[in-house]
Amino acid sequence: MLVPVRVRDPRFVRVAGALLLLCVLVLTAPAAAFHGMPGATPGSGVSVDEAVAQITGADGVLRFDVAENGALFTWSGTPELVDGFPTVGTAYVTQGYIYPAGTLDASNGVLEDGSPEFPDQVIGHWSCYGWWLGDAAHAATSPPWLNTHLFNFGPAWGGAMLTSEGYSIDDLDVPLERALTGGSGQFANASGVQVETNLGFNASGGMNFRYEIHVTES
């Protein structure tokens, strides 16, 4: 279902702030500082096995929450933003924290500065990149996003990872199915269906998500 574009939608209001933050970082800090930004590490120190155990239900379905770090949301600038808004095909990348299922509500999970609200409960790292499919500055309705999701569980990059492809929407509390396209570690050769539900926006301007993943092996 398509929804009206809201000029005050946090996904677009935060663009100017995110660009300003990036400019300040580039001008005042060495490149290595980017590696210390909130969300740069995949997990809070739990092992891969512990992280996977926390998300795996007795029925074999994987369930967990993700809090997007709005401080790390970045438009690519190609095509260029128009009056601060993305246009058709504008690319973006964003990141967030993976929490056990039931941790998040509509507005918690990430503090305003982009740090995790519950650092001891972080069990992994979420990344997302893709394209905005509409002209937000002029369109009357908001089309979905087309993107790739990467879910990295535990402390090591790629130790246990899942990927999915599909569309994302801004509507809240509307389950949306996506294709599970692969993984690494114990999820190598995984396929199946991912169900994504948007919960709301956290203090950083990022969105909170609830995920349910039905994994099969090819």
Walkthrough of the structure:
With 218 residues, this protein is mainly β. The protein has one domain: Beta Barrel (AOC barrel-like), CATH 2.40.480. The chain has helices at residues 10-28, 48-55, and strands at residues 3-4, 62-75, 91-100, 124-132, 141-142, 145-153, 161-168, 176-184, 190-201, 207-217. An eight-stranded antiparallel barrel has the order 2-3-4-6-7-8-9-10. The longest helix has 19 residues, at 10-28.
**Biggest sheet layout:** 8 strands, antiparallel, barrel
- State the distance separating the first and last CA atoms: 32 Å
Order of helices and strands: EHHEEEEEEEEE
Indicate the CATH class. Answer: Mainly Beta
Number of discrete domains: 1
Number of helices: 2
Strand content: 35-45%
Query: What is the helix content?
Result: 10-25%
**The CATH topology is what?**
AOC barrel-like
Q: What structural class is derived from the secondary structure elements?
A: mainly beta
- DSSP E strands, number: 10
Task: Using the CA coordinates, give the radius of gyration.
Answer: 17 Å
Q: CATH H-level name... which superfamily?
A: Allene oxide cyclase-like
User: What's the arrangement of strands in the largest beta sheet?
Assistant: 2-3-4-6-7-8-9-10
Low-confidence stretches: 1-40
Shape assignment: globular
Q: What's the average pLDDT? A: 81
CATH architecture descriptor = Beta Barrel
Identify the notable features of this structure and list them briefly.
single chain, 218 residues, mainly beta, AOC barrel-like, eight-stranded antiparallel beta barrel, two-stranded antiparallel sheet, 10 strands, 12% helix
